[in-house]
Design a protein that fits this description.
Rossmann fold; 2 domains; elongated; about 40% helix; alpha/beta; 4-stranded mixed beta sheet
Length: about 375
Amino acid sequence: MKLKKFIALATATVMSLSMVACSNSTSGKGNNPNKIVLGTMGPLTGSNAIYGISTANGIKLAAEQKQTVLGKPVEILSVDDKADQTEAVNAYNKFVNNDGVAGVVGATTSGASLSVAITSAKYGTPILTPTGTVPEITTSGDNVFRACYTDPFQGEIMAQFAFENLGLKKVAIMENIDSSYSEGLKNSFIAKFEELGGEIVASEGYKDSDKDFKAQLTKIASVTPEALFIPDYYTQAYLIASQAKDSGLKDTILLGGDGWDGMHTIAQDTSIVENSYFCSHFSLEDQDPVVQDFINTYKTKYGENPTAFSALGYDAANIMMNAIETAGSTDSKAIVEAIKNTQYQGVTGNIKFDENGDPIKGVSIIQIQDGQYKLFDKIEK
């Protein structure tokens, strides 16, 4: 979905539900006297469940470790929004009207996060999305923040890495024209790469439902790029990579964004993406004690390694709980002000927020080697 249509749909969803929120909202008052309640929503079923469950697991782990805030037990209310904007706004309305939440750590997907952000801005509820990357989320209101970096930010980082670290001068792009995520990364990658002196030698598009990419890849192969940037989620990226090797791009370096995290879980032949690079929010190989402690604790609880979504959920929940403690109350304005002044050493980096509520932190560059994710570099901001 193109970005303008994406934002228009989110706005329409909010407008259709706003009467419900206006009628009896107690938003942002944190009015549960016996406990600190935080709401979170994300896809726990359906095709996007892998992201929602991982994020929710990180949030729950943070709350279990913290146990109490302001001397009260912490409760996490988790709702399956099915990656649907209406479901997410309905969950938000319930949180603030019925459950007395002090803040919301959500939503997970960008569309749901944007709808919740627009709704919440009217009432001031502290909102911190772990994983919503569309830029407009945090410009919806002063009360809205994110723990992840934005689509344009990571597009720029990958362009800079390709040009400066890998020494690449000629890059081609395959874009999912149905995805605002893909479009955001593509546009910022092109702008930064050309600014640095690189050349985009080809740019081809495909639809989300497409499975055959050989026509586009053959065109790209004819201009012999040094690298192919595929800004999409790992299921589509792996499928494209599989066909690229048979379309004359066997020795071409493949590049991706954070949506590639999880590719190793579906790759039947990891040699297809051998020596590819993508950016991520953290690495299992990062020897920082904060990171390793999180990995070990998460693995003990859930029986598997955390993903970047898990780490972002964990950091977002901790930032919200720390802000409530700093505020000394569940007053929304006080919590928002505390988040603005956050200095947090997290799993996904040392985090502070800019004037838009976006995090200023480093980026991990991951290289796929022997089917494993290897920490290639850390780029600090």
